[in-house]
Amino acid sequence: MNYKSKTLFVLVSLLLVAASAIAQKKERAQTVKNSPTVKTETMTKKEKVVALLKSIETGAPEPVGYINPNKYIQHNLGAADGLAGFGALLKALPPNSAKVNTVRAFEDGEFVFTHTDYNFFGPKIGFDIFRFENGLIVEHWDNLQETAKPNPSGHTMIDGPAVSTDLNKTEENKKLVKQFVEDILVNGKMEKLAGYFNGDNYIQHNPLIPDQLSGLGKALTEWAKQGITMKYSKIHKVLGEGNFVLVVSEGHLAGQHNSFYDLFRVENGKIAEHWDTIEPIPAQTEWKNNNGKF
């Protein structure tokens, strides 16, 4: 199985099996719906998504109830659209081998975005985005990267603060971070870089870059000497909850077409911390659906 879509393969396969069982046994479905352990009527969108992701590890069938079986748009390019194409993929994962630890979950309107530490066919860090309609999940995007060792400053790809604050500043922070990405990463206006940070204070979780704004500058300079360039071409999504903002972009790193998911933490109107995953976008001839990565 190629490409980094095994998470979705397993997840949707589990959902198919559960959906089939529920369709055959309506009485059981009603029992699940009314069960005090499920509480679908009172669960938040974040709780539904976290439970759905955890079902990769546990095999729990109940989270199928959080998916709209008649409308599930897939943007993981290694997975066919909808749910129908995944039943045979369940056997790809050895029993009891998957581990899922969702470290961060945030909500922005009808969207939930998560930051998860996965272990399936090896450790991976992933961002997932789910879109809801009428309380059910109808669309999914993700970005996966193999888990790397701690960066030069000792930070992992997943550690750090996980709970949002400043909920009344969500839109303000989204605007700030979007402008940063547009100015610096899309348009290369490096003269504006320092204005987005509080002096040299900056915590970095990219596995190749150390802390501090000066550390970022040194890393970029070293890359340039090696002929490695990073260029963002387009921002596709900006989602936020309080002081956390996720930006989904596409561009090129070292000449390769990539999807960039960047999570920023804002503090007092300045960018204070950053996590990311970078995933290559395969040639269209390899796509399993026609919805596109974004």
UniProtKB/TrEMBL annotation:
Keyword Signal: yes
InterPro entries (alphabetical): Cyclase_SnoaL-like, NTF2-like_dom_sf, SnoaL-like
Keywords for this protein: Signal
Position of the signal peptide: 1-23
Organism superkingdom: Bacteria
The SnoaL-like domain, residue ranges: 177-274
Protein name: Nuclear transport factor 2 family protein
Annotated source species: Ohtaekwangia kribbensis
